[in-house]
Specification:
The protein has 10 helices and 7 strands. It has 261 residues and is of the alpha/beta class. It has one domain: Rossmann fold. A 7-stranded parallel β-sheet has the order 3-2-1-4-5-6-7, sandwiched between helices. Helix 5 links the parallel strand 5 and strand 6. The longest helix is centred in the middle third of the chain and has 29 residues. The structure holds NADP nicotinamide-adenine-dinucleotide phosphate (NAP). The site of NADP nicotinamide-adenine-dinucleotide phosphate has 29 residues, from helix 1 and helix 6.
């Protein structure tokens, strides 16, 4: 990491949770940052504290990433200012727990717009710039739920499956252009995610809960090493092994219970 500390890092969803932690860890490594989310005050407070503590340059961009026009504008603005993004952390996302037919259609579509369309647009725009320069790194934040459809998380688990599959394909596709794509698949972690998703924290989930710091550290290390994907934490790794070693009906059943009861 030491050589790359003049490389700009753009972090989406930097106003809380993993995004805030990515900002802290990259600032500690000396990188200049672009922090993106909707809650401007939070971003400004974080930027001020990182500038003070680490002496790094931090730009703040208030953007609703579920709006494609706003993403295009963000890209144009940064290009016009001469800010070249070398590391893109596609982290912003949200979930919603509940029976599919009882959710509002608008809520389901908003999730798809942010978790799938917004992430795809960011990857396309900044990925092209990286290809031109023949260097760059992209981290896609998926989820353990990417590995299977989960009852009461139907749209979210499907959206994260998209993120994982996109990341795996682009990892191979971008390699020849000097651009690395890595997908991070966290399990239950102590952020604002559960509150936003109106998620029930079951006993099983409480036992599996990680803090954001080791998850983010694992993501940065995997990105730096050019890995295709990473599952942080021993328990999450065991879960993936369990999914690999058992029939789909069995692990889907177990996972749906862990998530819901
Ligand atoms: N925590 C978990 O258990 C867990 C597990 C697996 C995967 N994940 C994934 O991790 C990622 C980060 O979530 P988190 O756990 O850190 O949750 P979080 O604390 O709720 O953070 C979500 C971030 O996304 C931003 N965001 C939400 N909607 C946005 C929009 N329309 N435009 C721009 N930014 C938006 C939020 O900022 P504003 O509200 O200020 O816009 C916030 O900074 C998500 O992709 C999530 O799916 C989380």
């Amino acid at each position: 990491m030491s050589k790359s500390n003049d490389s700009w890092v753009l972090i989406t969803g930097a106003s809380s949770g993993f995004g805030e932690e990515f900002a802290k860890q990259y600032a500690a490594l000396g990188h200049p940052l672009v922090l993106v989310a909707r809650r401007l005050e939070r971003l400004q407070t974080l930027a001020a504290s990182l500038q003070k503590q680490y002496g790094v340059e931090v730009l703040v961009e208030q953007v609703d990433l579920s709006n494609t026009a706003a993403i295009l504008k963000l890209h144009d603005d940064l290009t016009n200012r001469g800010v070249q993004i070398d590391i893109l952390i596609n982290n912003a996302g949200h979930g919603l727990q509940g029976p599919f037919l009882e959710s509002q259609l608008d809520d389901a579509l908003a999730m798809i717009q942010l978790d799938i369309a917004g992430l795809t647009a960011m990857t396309h725009l900044f990925g092209r710039d990286m290809k031109k320069r023949q260097r760059g790194k992209i981290l896609q934040v998926a989820s353990m739920l990417a590995y299977q459809g989960v009852v009461n998380f139907a749209v979210y688990s499907a959206a994260k499956a998209y993120v994982l599959r996109l990341g795996e394909a682009l990892h191979r596709e971008f390699k020849a252009d000097g651009v690395t794509v890595t997908t991070l698949c966290p399990g239950m972690t102590n952020t604002e995610f559960a509150t936003t998703a109106q998620q029930k924290i079951t006993l099983g989930l409480r036992a599996l809960m990680m803090q954001p710091s080791p998850v983010v550290r694992a993501g940065i290390q995997a990105l730096q090493a050019g890995r295709i994907s990473v599952v942080p934490g021993v328990m999450n790794k065991l879960n993936v092994f369990f999914m690999w070693a058992t029939p789909r009906w069995l692990h889907q059943n177990v996972f749906s219970r862990v998530m819901n009861s």
